[in-house]
């Protein structure tokens, strides 16, 4: 029994594909964090490998005491190369040897596993979910543009609403409609056809909009209602039927019979659009820090653990060297 003025519009079209749409599954800040994580992990790997005594190897095993020619496979360039190769899930001929560098490698592999799995899953959603674009989302959008024409049923209550309105935005819309009288239509059917032709919005009562969008899947209501009013039944002044009719209507509302009647005539099976067709505007959202931020925390904790491990390795090796030196001096 309640209604208002709404906007009838053609179902929005598909958004044009973008050249860099492959980056859509992840939010911009996530891409920046991934780059930062790559630089941080590569730098940490380089420092830890230099600090850990177990990453220094003898390239000439036939010379057992060649301490002066020991090399470290993780120089700065190779550290960055190891990180990017493992990020892309490719093989690498460099393998960490110490516990500290293995911790970095393991935690980075875990990070890339979660990141790539999340990216792949969301990329599939972006490729399968139909992306649509809506040129207008509300009456404000409609009033502040000139590409899409709009109008009402000529000599209707909706037309009177805009003509007599005191709200600036509705006054602006009325001035536009007065300047373009060809946008007024003489029937609802004419308005529906003009909407389907494109670039036209039809301002009409919400009950008729509900009826039309239920039967034509190419139509949609944009935004909410511009006003609110209700249907009523007129009786003679002082009529005994006034209270009886009012109580009967309230009873029909309370027991749900009015809703059942509405569903019968507005949402008859076989005549209305299916939920699948009316829900074509589902959108996949890019993954943000709130979705996969935890994996960055795990990565940082892993790097801290690797640095602690490298420090312990260094101290252990130093202690062994002191013990060996003391033993030699005693001999």
TrEMBL record:
The keyword Membrane applies. The chain crosses the membrane at residues 30-49, 103-127, 292-312. One of its GO terms (cellular component) is ionotropic glutamate receptor complex. The record marks 163 as: Interaction with the cone snail toxin Con-ikot-ikot. Disulfide bonds join 217-273. It is found in: Postsynaptic cell membrane. The keyword Disulfide bond applies. Its main location: membrane. Keywords: Cell membrane, Disulfide bond, Glycoprotein, Ion channel, Ion transport, Ligand-gated ion channel, Membrane, Postsynaptic cell membrane, Receptor, Signal, Synapse, Transmembrane, Transmembrane helix, Transport. This is Glutamate receptor 1. It comes from Euroglyphus maynei.
């Amino acid at each position: 029994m309640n209604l208002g003025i709404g906007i009838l519009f053609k179902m929005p079209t598909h958004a044009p594909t973008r050249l860099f749409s492959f980056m859509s599954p992840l939010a911009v800040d996530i891409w920046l964090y991934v780059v930062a994580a790559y630089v941080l992990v590569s730098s940490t790997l380089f420092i830890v490998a230099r600090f850990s005594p177990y990453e220094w190897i003898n390239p000439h095993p036939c010379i057992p005491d060649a301490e002066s020619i020991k090399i470290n496979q993780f120089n700065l360039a190779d550290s960055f190369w190891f990180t990017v190769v493992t990020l892309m899930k490719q093989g690498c001929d460099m393998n960490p040897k110490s516990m500290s560098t293995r911790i970095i490698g393991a935690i980075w592999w875990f990070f890339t596993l979660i990141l790539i799995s999340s990216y792949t899953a969301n990329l599939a959603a972006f490729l399968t979910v139909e992306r649509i674009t809506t040129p207008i989302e509300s009456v404000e959008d409609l009033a502040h543009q000139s590409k899409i024409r709009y109008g009402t049923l000529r000599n209707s209550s909706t037309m009177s609403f805009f003509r007599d309105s005191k709200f600036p935005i509705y006054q602006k819309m009325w001035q536009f409609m007065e300047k373009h009288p060809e946008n007024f239509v003489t029937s609802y059917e004419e308005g529906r056809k003009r909407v389907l032709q494109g670039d036209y919005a039809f301002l009409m009562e919400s009950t008729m909009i509900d009826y039309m969008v239920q039967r034509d899947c190419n139509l949609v209501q944009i935004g909410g209602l511009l006003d609110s009013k209700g249907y009523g039944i007129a009786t003679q002044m002082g009529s005994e039927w006034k209270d009886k009719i009012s109580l009967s209507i309230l009873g029909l509302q309370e027991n749900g019979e009015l809703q059942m009647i509405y569903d019968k005539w507005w949402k008859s099976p076989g005549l209305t659009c299916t939920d699948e067709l009316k829900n074509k505007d589902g959108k996949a959202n890019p993954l943000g820090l709130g979705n996969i931020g935890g994996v960055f925390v795990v990565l940082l904790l892993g790097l801290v653990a690797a640095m602690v491990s490298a420090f312990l390795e260094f101290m252990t090796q130093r202690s062994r060297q002191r013990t060996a030196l003391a033993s030699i001096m005693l001999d």
